[in-house]
Amino acid sequence: xxxxxxxxxxxxxxxxxxxxxxxxxxxxxxxxxxxxxxxxxxxxxxxxxxxxxxxxxxxxxxxxxxxxxxxxxxxxxxxxxxxxxxxxxxxxxxxxxxxxxxxxxxxxxxxxxxxxxxxxxxxxxxxxxxxxxxxxxxxxxxxxxxxxxxxxxxxxxxxxxxxxxxxxxxxxxxxxxxxxxxxxxxxxxxxxxxxxxxxxxxxxxxxxxxxxxxxxxxxxxxxxxxxxxxxxxxxxxxxxxxxxxxxxxxxxxxxxxxxxxxxxxxxxxxxxxxxxxxxxxxxxxxxxxx
Length: 290
Description:
By secondary structure, the chain is α/β, with parallel strands linked by helices.
């Protein structure tokens, strides 16, 4: 993970903080991407906006989320690593925006126009364009638009076509670290330089860094525990006792006993993910009691 002084506008922490703190730049950037004016923001840009529709459901966090007074919703995501599932991610984000809106009791006809915008430091479709815009169109007659209000846009560095304005081209170059005399680029870069001197943001980033390291360590722990649970259950099916299993897996009898005791609550299916989750929760509760 980068040191704070090395962060650029394309780094998620800096990207989110600058747009959250500077509504005018967020609006100007969005207008440049769309090629038209948007309404005044009725909700300030919110970063890392979390949406979870059910307590046990898979949630989502939007990088930068805001609404304008024309009843349009915007989600802007920074993407610096090339992933093949970006199109399906954009579909998922679109669906979550709609479901979040409808859960408040609104009707389908009230769904607002929405824009999912990915800012990519690479050409995600490898066709040489700097901007790829998608809205539902009839295959048989492309003059027929579905007109469902959905819009997905991918802004990409690395293109070689002359398909965007010089102003947008300068902004796209800035995503890869090229600073030009373009006014928006200058304003954004000025905010980045100011942010590097902001002790409050620096401390927040350090806390954020620690949280990521903790999550990584927990992920490693969960992965190792998941493998161990599978191995213990496999040995149990062979009718081996606790001592034999512990010896075969080079672990303690207490660990094997703990896994088997928790696993009994999930018989006969023995859902490994649920067993791992229950063990980790049990351990956390025990730590908090000490």
